[in-house]
Amino acid sequence: MTKKQLIMEKAIELFAEKGFEATSVQQITDECGISKGAFYLTFKSKDELILALIDYFMMQFTSDIDYVVKNTKNKEDLLYKFYYTIFNSFSKHADFAKILIKEQIRSFNEEFLQKSHIYDQAMDKIILSMVERLYGDEIHQTKHDVMYCVKGFMKTYAELFLFHNLPLDLDLLARSLVEKTNVLARNITIPFISTELVQLLHQSKGKEATKDQILELIEQNINEIEESIEKESLILLKQQLIEPALSPAIVKGLLENIRNHTQCKWTSYLLRDYFEVL
């Protein structure tokens, strides 16, 4: 475990127990067994640490959902697996999600807002591709409305078990939301959200990652990890970005090699999207 991973892991435990405001850098360093100087060599401030934690969880969440949508071959299972994966992830990280929403994160600076827009835009793209695959021309005029309805289900039902301590039956919840989504998708007749409106929203939120930005992220991953298979795969994927020479099957295999590494999940997502790997 790297020093950065240690700090983030211990900070999550303290934030869940005490909250953001009540947890000091000194308490975090004491829990980690490191000096304040070592902390500030990794993070410039507690605010930067909090943003890194949010970044980390959003990367994990978005990349996992994207993988499920792209790799579920049976359309009959797709919507169920989508909802199950989402709420299973919320359940696993419930403590952090609770304090994040409860405290409304005081560091709403430009960097945080930009990151939020990027993840929101990525989720829009994932959900839209799913509903297009599921319902096809049947919802051509209303597909963006369906997408926003799905996002509404995600938010509303997550709050139910995050803040009301209700017993969570993931299977029942996923099946129930599949039914609701199907009813909405097949019966909506009056579109409100147009393609043009979505494009305007995305323009205001920011642009997708460029090739140079992906290369920079890969280089960062290569420098941070030690595992040989993941590192070798990243080196080959970096070369593929610079000078394509590998077959789609090999690229897909390399992406599988890095997909479950916690530090490479976002890289895997960006590369899957860039190479259009299904």
Automatic annotation (TrEMBL):
Residues 24-43 bind DNA. It comes from the Bacteria. Keywords: DNA-binding. GO terms for molecular function: DNA binding. Pfam families: TetR_N. Residues 1-61 form the HTH tetR-type domain. The keyword DNA-binding applies. This is Transcriptional regulator, TetR family. It comes from Sporosarcina newyorkensis.
